[in-house]
Amino acid sequence: xxxxxxxxxxxxxxxxQPRNSHISLGSxxxxxxxxxxxxxxxxxxxxxxxxxxxYPVGIFLAGVPQRTVxxxxxxxxxxxxxxxxxxxxxDGRLIIRSQQGRDKNIIDSSEIATASMLDTGNFVLYDAxxxxxxxxxxxxxxxxxxxxxxxxxxxxxxxxxxxxQATGIFRLKMQNDGNLVQYPVETPDTPEYACxxxxxxxxxxxxxxxxxxxxxxxxxxxxxxxxxxxxxxNQSIIWSSTYNxxxxxxxxxxxxxxxxxxxxxxxxxxxxxSPVIEGNFTAGCxxxxxxxxxxxxxxxxxxxxxxxxxxxxxxx
Length: 316
Hints:
The chain is an all-beta fold.
């Protein structure tokens, strides 16, 4: 999935759960009971959300009909079953506990005194002196929200799909040299691997990507605005790192190719290949025949060459 930043205009609606802006030690959630802690306006929530394979923990828009996940804890772990619980323990830990009593840290800290789900979408943990010791705005996964910034050294990682928040195949990094660059995952931070660049390298090590409440997306350093990334703020998509959706390298995985169908793109397999994982095009395609089937009875190799029409090939 290409890294895209969205500005969402949302009207908060009430949902049938108690308000939670101050979360005390001993509080707990379950997937099938009280499943989330709400911000005061009930727009954002921190807690369990439904997934086809179970219940991940994250931050999501709760005040709109279509649930949109903006942050996920332990995103590459399998979702937990309905028997699990999320606890802010009496000894100051935020954990998921299985039915068998096994604990998994959400945040690696044992100094938590209270927590808050803020109306900004930021989930914050405090110590006994009410100092912030951790906040989701400083540990983004796929998304930055209005009022949030991506500081030098921080990255956004795409998700596998809109419904699967596991780490996908692209990352957007605010580099220490002042450049904002999109790369495939597990590649070095070098120009030859870049899918897109803001071309702002040399602007200093304190540059950050900022999204204002009015939808203004820009790069900023200590001297002021360096570069505006969006000019037209009257659209649901206010900026994209590329408007050619087939452009990002490796989008369709090994032995796959991309077809631009206008609003969406479709990944297809080369002739003789099938998807490795149905519905996950980034996993690529694998051969759907055995090499033995190419041999005739007299041991000769028989094969057919097929052309893929109207296709542009690029070096990997």
